[in-house]
Design goal:
2 copies of one chain form a homodimer.
Chain A (H helix, E strand, L loop, with lengths): L7 H11 L15 H29 L2 E3 L2 E3 L4 H10 L18 H14 L1 H20 L2 H12 L3 E6 L15 E4 L5 E11 L8 E9 L10 E7 L1 E3 L5 E4 L2 E6 L10 E13 L6 H6 L2 H29 L23 H34 L2 H32 L11 H9 L8 H12 L2 H21 L6 H25 L3 H5 L2 H29 L5 H18 L2 H10 L3 H4 L7
Helix pairs in contact in A: 1-2, 1-9, 2-3, 2-4, 4-5, 4-8, 4-9, 5-6, 8-9, 8-10, 8-11, 9-10, 9-16, 9-17, 10-11, 10-12, 10-13, 10-16, 12-16, 13-14, 14-16, 14-17, 14-18, 16-17, 16-18
Chain lengths: 591, 591
């Protein structure tokens, strides 16, 4: 069975040596002293290794069951959920006014990676609750906040997000669920929602559903969608639970993975709901949480890769098969361990250099979100809006690929469920789909974010890279990082220029290259992260760091990314430059 | 539930317009008249669409069960197997002396694609039998052939291949199963074999296991391995079944996919076996079938992609979501079909251009195998030995990617098992692993095949491309195919040169680039196939073909491959040229 150990040292390196959080002017970051974050991450790591990781396979094998209308979670989930709550983990970055600990989102993100890597399906119950908490916290009335948030921060009540219907996912304007106004100001919600993660279960007293629906008579399409709070059990004064609301589980979906999470069809049969935010502004309310939600999914992508990678390394060191062609490494054994073989190394280096780069990118993204929320920084807001589809789309694609590569290290055993490597790949697969399928991320990036505010956010991104190169080109050791970064950044700019020049003639010239652009952007961003990490590592070595090997390993891993991954940018640019014609050439009937 | 229709028109195009089989001098190809192959493929297509495809999901959902030592296959498998046998499909390309129909391997390959695409797990029962048939046919004594082959050709008895043990897969020299000689010339086989596909089941009277084992006292390692025939039930005169042999099923493995096939742990407890071929030459006996077996897995890779692609196209035409940015295409509907969107097209074109290129490559490979077996052509033998790891490794990697991409077209529904798209991805996943994991294919290609016979086979491949370019460069329409093909071929040659120059200094310089080389080779080969297909399509259009749209679609699909896929070759070359250093830099402890 797979194991998991939190990569706290690597996280500390990013927080304190790359992002230098305590030197930041973001309010609250002064609390993130190295000793403190280390203690938090170590404690999270214990819960992850000892409790959550061992339940990962249990959740996969047992799945959730619907019994007489009640969803039963897998053996051990309820007890683990109690431990998560008792440790105060669910409210780590929540508002102290409602019982949260008020920590920065960045720290919540680091802890989130640890829990997600150990058991993604389990962590979704708290993760969805956090999303619903954010929506109510941002858009709720004082009374709504007082009514729902304290119990949601503690996860005594959990939350869900209800968007998709059988006939519409991406195109929510087609939605049919309706919300009829009642005399008392509430609404009667009627319709069917599908793919509702954590839709119902036996680990909390109540479930607070956030439901998108249309108020009859409102604008057509997406502009007529409103957001509603629909509790499973009605909530009275002092948060006392009342009668059951008219919402029920239609069925639990059989999925490729994340079996431990109950993905429900939810039926609303005139259920009582309360408007959250303004009428017909439901999508706007959803969008304010979208950066966080999508960053969270981008995190899931590389977190599954991290967990899979850790186990692939163990197996590659244990499994004896073949001999090192340059000379036997294990003369007393019947064969050498897999890790002597160059192609196994290639695969492990692909995985490692991706995961560490993605972690840095995600943490940087989380720090931008803190900057938005805690400093009201509008530049950071524009930048993270631009980067979000890249974090989500690129990292989940590559995270899945890395999990598949880790599974491959096991040979035939990787295909047998007992070894647990298949689960990482199957669980990671959903991250490419939910919270906006990756093609939609690419569309969001190229069709919306790239040109937003006159393109100033992508210019800001290029400027960051340009400044970094300029600041560091005096250090000869940095040349092998700055050269490839410059080349990648140039390819990315050329692609953006192509879209501007050719997209005017035909928007499909931009959209046909959107997916490649997302990947070109992702590689450039991770190249930037690796250059920053290399700089920090060189600085540590110059400062006589005691653990020189850690920093040398960091530099070597970054060097691998620059030489072996960044050549992809030229390929993506070439594809982009071929425009819409080859992509759109066929009649639909000729596919 | 997914559907499947055999792509007979595309197959006919490759057989008759690209490979021009009836004009070939290979004995037996004169029988492959277009009307005949068309009738065979249509008939296979009916069985596939009506019987096998509907059972694909059944096999996945039910899986195989071990009941009191007997393996039960999923509902409907036995009846379908009887239909397969009754149609004479199992012996299509087998020796008429033993009841086969003596058709070329190429035709067997085309029919094989149809069955594999419809139901891969089901087809493995006959597929493994065919492999065991080939081994006995090539290495068996006359008596062994007379005893086993007639019933195996008809699939009254099925076959298996027993190589892997718990501690060894790739490195079979570590094998522990032993074969003790008996006075009567037989052997007692004792040991445990794992991952035995079709190891046992309820669809045949007998199972003929081919088992690798070591005769005590023989040479150490791989040179002391012999091959044995071990029947489940002893076979007497006139093929009468006798008592049960001492071989039993330990368990059925729970796998990620191909649930309809029984993957067994087989226990041999002093089972009676008969030497097949020479003592200690078991690996050589296996190797003679390896090209066919690996080509068969390379076929599985793109066949799963074909089946997944067909369903993605249907969904993309049916599902209404969003509007075409260049103008509404379905004004009477609530939204346009998915297929209007450029990124959906990109994905479908990726799938389509890969599948059709891989089909041509595989059929060409099958024709080379016919040339070896029917004409004793040693050049063809060298060439197919070189191409085999590319067909297996590249096509299964890309086939899996394509199945995942097809699943992605379904959005959230792709993740729900009910829709069947997950199964294509899960089933395709095994093709990257079995019959030699893809890293081993890359090692075989670069470490063995590339330099074989002084490198003359790879030179022959380059010469084929060079001649083709020379012959066709007078046709201006071919320029957009020949240019990219030339560039890809140049990259491939540069990579081979790098290996020669740098591999001498350190073999790891070659091995660290082996995986990229396999992909670089695969893209070049598919580019070559597309250039050949384009030539044939232009010729058909010049000849006034009635179905001009078919040929125009073919040319447009090829153009897509050249412009959007071949840019990958430069990336692979850049990675290869970075050599072993970045790949091997870390100590094993620092991963």
């Amino acid at each position: 069975m797979p194991s998991y150990v939190a990569p706290t040292k690597d996280m500390q390196f990013i927080l304190h040596e790359v992002l230098e959080v305590t030197a930041s002017d973001v309010p609250g970051y002064d609390e993130l002293e190295a000793d403190f974050t280390s203690a938090v991450l170590e404690e999270a790591g214990k819960l992850a290794s000892d409790v959550l990781a061992p339940l990962n396979a249990v959740g996969d094998t047992e799945g959730c069951r619907l019994e007489n209308g009640v969803v039963r979670t897998p053996t051990g989930f309820k007890e683990a959920f109690e431990q998560l709550k008792a440790g105060g983990w669910t409210g780590l970055d929540c508002d102290p006014e409602y019982g949260g600990q008020g920590m920065p989102y960045l720290l919540g993100t680091a802890v989130g990676e640890v829990f997600v890597a150990a058991n993604m399906a389990f962590n979704m119950y708290a993760g969805l609750t956090h999303g619903a908490y954010s929506a109510i916290h941002t858009h709720g009335t004082d009374q709504q906040k007082a009514t729902y948030l304290p119990k949601m921060v503690s996860c005594d009540w959990t939350g869900t997000m209800n968007l998709t219907e059988p006939h519409c996912g991406t195109d929510l304007g087609l939605m049919r669920t309706k919300a009829e106004p009642q005399d008392d100001g509430s609404f009667k919600i009627t319709g069917q929602k599908i793919f509702i993660s954590a839709g119902d279960h036996d680990m909390s007293e109540n479930v607070i559903h956030l439901v998108l629906a249309k108020i009859p008579g409102g604008p057509a399409g997406i502009k007529g969608v409103s957001l509603f709070i629909v509790p499973k059990f009605m909530v009275g004064e002092d948060q006392k639970l009342g009668e059951r609301n008219a919402v029920s589980v239609g069925k639990i979906e059989e999925k490729m993975g994340i079996h431990g999470n109950s993905t429900c069809v939810m039926n609303y049969d005139g259920a009582t709901g309360y408007l959250l935010g303004e009428e017909h502004k439901g999508m706007r309310a959803m969008f304010t949480m979208m950066n966080e939600a999508r960053l969270g999914v981008g995190l899931q992508g590389y977190a599954q890769a991290e967990a899979a990678y850790q186990n692939a390394v163990i197996y590659a060191n244990d499994r004896l098969q073949g001999r090192d062609v340059t000379g036997t490494k294990n003369p007393d054994g019947p064969a050498d361990p897999l890790i002597v073989h160059p192609d196994i190394r290639r695969s492990l280096m692909d995985q490692k250099s991706f995961v560490e780069g993605a972690r840095a990118f995600t943490f940087w993204g989380a720090s931008l979100i803190d900057r938005v929320h805690r400093s009201g920084d509008t530049q950071a807001d524009g930048l993270i809006s631009l980067l979000t589809p890249v974090i989500k789309g690129f990292q989940t694609d590559k995270g899945f690929d890395a999990a598949v590569a880790a599974q491959q290290v096991y040979g035939g055993h990787g295909y047998i469920e007992e070894w647990g490597m298949s689960q990482f790949a199957r669980d990671a697969r959903i991250t490419m789909i939910y919270e906006g399928a990756n093609g939609v991320q690419a569309l969001d990036l190229v069709g919306r974010k790239l040109a937003q505010d006159g393109g100033k956010h992508v210019m800001a991104f290029f400027d960051l890279i340009k400044s970094f190169i300029k600041e560091n080109e005096g250090d000869a050791r940095m040349a092998e990082f700055l050269g490839p970064l410059k080349a990648a950044s140039k390819d990315l700019q050329a692609a953006a220029m192509y879209f501007m020049a050719q997209g005017v003639k035909n928007p499909n010239n931009a959209l046909a290259g959107s997916y490649d652009f997302m990947h070109l952007f992702g590689h450039t961003a991770l190249g930037f992260m690796w250059a920053r990490m290399a700089k920090a590592a060189f600085a540590a070595l110059d400062g006589g760091a005691s653990d020189a090997e850690f920093y040398e390993t960091k530099i070597a891993t970054g060097r691998y990314y620059m030489t072996r991954q960044l050549p992809a940018t030229a390929m993506h640019l070439a594809r982009i430059n071929s425009g819409a014609e080859p992509v759109m050439a066929l009649k639909a009937a000729n596919f």
